[in-house]
């Protein structure tokens, strides 16, 4: 079976063709076979390709950390327009930062002075720091990623103008295909569990 046929056996024809194009554009040839096999096992495309566009940024994606969603990106772009109109330096505290996508995106604004972003997942913190490095040319604010548990009120000793969070929103009992959560991304890069 060709790679396209393998993908068509799992996805609609147009999605299969688009995903094969992305795999072939973004990965070295030596990884195409494995990538198609992984995708046919419904591994999220972003974990296979290793990244997801988020506004002007490229956000690295790794298993164990939520893939940034399209609706989060849209919300964040709208929020940036509001913050950009604000006078004076804006200091942001973000809970539940995950990959760091929201905090880093806000940190690209010229009037944002500082972003402190917290998470309890050490894998997420490591990835958010990689994402800071990857996007450093576009980041204007001072950014710090720190360990912090929202439920234990672990607040850094800092003042903030703006408090942000995209907290966990899927009840544990729904966290399976049977519970209504998609098993894999759809045909838009950005859809995720
Ligand atoms: C829905 S994800 C959001 C990730 C990212 N902000 C985004 O929008 O893609 C929720 C994040 O909250 C973190 N989290 C869960 N419980 C937490 C807690 N008690 N304190 C801080 N972070 C928590 C998880 O590790 C996860 O990274």
Automatic annotation (TrEMBL):
Q: Which PANTHER family match?
A: HEMK METHYLTRANSFERASE, MTRF1L RELEASE FACTOR GLUTAMINE METHYLTRANSFERASE
Instruction: Give the species.
Output: Pichia angusta
- Provide the protein name: peptide chain release factor N(5)-glutamine methyltransferase
The family database entries (Pfam families) matched by this protein are listed as:
MTS
**Keywords, in A-Z order:** Methyltransferase, S-adenosyl-L-methionine, Transferase
What are its E.C. numbers? Answer: 2.1.1.297
InterPro entries on file: DNA_methylase_N6_adenine_CS (IPR002052), HemK-like (IPR004556), N5-glutamine_MTase (IPR050320), SAM-dependent_MTases_sf (IPR029063), Small_mtfrase_dom (IPR007848)
> Superkingdom of this entry's organism?
Eukaryota
- Chain ranges of the Methyltransferase small domain: 91-169
Catalyses which reaction(s): L-glutaminyl-[peptide chain release factor] + S-adenosyl-L-methionine = N(5)-methyl-L-glutaminyl-[peptide chain release factor] + S-adenosyl-L-homocysteine + H(+)
């Amino acid at each position: 079976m060709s790679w396209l046929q393998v993908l068509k056996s799992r996805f609609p024809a147009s999605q299969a063709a688009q995903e094969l194009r992305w795999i072939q554009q973004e990965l070295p040839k030596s990884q195409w076979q494995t990538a198609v096999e992984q995708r046919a096992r419904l591994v999220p495309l972003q974990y296979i390709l290793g990244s997801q566009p988020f506004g002007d940024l490229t956000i690295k994606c790794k298993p164990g950390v939520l893939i940034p969603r399209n609706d989060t990106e849209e919300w964040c772009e709208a929020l940036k327009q509001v913050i950009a109109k604000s006078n004076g330096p804006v200091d942001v505290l973000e809970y539940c930062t995950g990959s760091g996508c929201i905090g880093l995106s806000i940190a690209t604004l010229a009037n944002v002075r500082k972003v402190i972003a917290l998470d309890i997942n050490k894998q997420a913190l490591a990835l958010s720091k990689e994402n800071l490095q990857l996007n450093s040319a576009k980041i204007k604010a001072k950014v710090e990623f720190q360990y912090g548990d929202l439920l234990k009120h672990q607040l850094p000793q800092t003042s903030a103008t703006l408090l942000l969070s995209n907290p966990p929103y899927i009840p544990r009992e729904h966290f399976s295909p049977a519970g209504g959560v998609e098993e894999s991304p759809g045909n838009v890069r950005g859809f995720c569990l």
